[in-house]
Amino acid sequence: MNAIDVLKYGQTTILATMGRYRPDDWDRIALGVWTAKDLLGHLGAFEVRFADILATFVDAPPASDLMSADPRTFNDDQAAIRKDWTIEQVTKEFLDAHERVMTHAAAITPERWREVGTIPWYGPEYSLDDLLVYQMYAHKREHDPQLSAVLEAPDR
Q: Domain boundaries in the chain?
């Protein structure tokens, strides 16, 4: 698998949807009680955490403490933290974190990406490739339709 391509395609999907947004679209409900801005903030928190995970593979310092955040309340906790952020702040975090992801990812060999057992906290039978596909790529593909639905709302 080409990790860089998978990362690029996941990000491109979200960026294409974001590119269709008007300023007032970010305040529309996209998922449950979350606005589109909240949902992008959720994706941004995942991106920050993934960048920090990858940092451990390239001996770089983490940029946050999100790796130690409680997984049971991660989503709601992170949404609450970003609730009062502007869309510019949410977008910047998302884009900056992805840039860190790409920098770290490029420094990890394909063999290391495939190596089983390097992320025991996720499961001893998994590799970094698995985490990338299940938690990052699939996650973006899961939420993109919700972001897209905001653009298709009849009252838009």
A: 3-151
Each residue's pLDDT tens digit, 93-113: 999 999 999 999 999 999 999
Looking at the predicted structure, is the pLDDT value of residue 2 above 90? yes
Displacement of CA 17 from its chain's centroid (Å)? 15
Q: How far is CA 91 from CA 38, 42, 118, in A?
A: 11, 11, 30
3-151: CATH homologous superfamily?
dinb family like domain (1.20.120.450)
Stated pTM of the model = 0.95
Tokens of 11: 């990000």
What is the distance of C-alpha 63 from the center of its chain?
A: 15
Cα 91 to Cα 105: distance, rounded to the nearest angstrom = 21
Classify residue 62 as left (phi > 0), alpha (psi -120 to 50) or beta.
Answer: beta
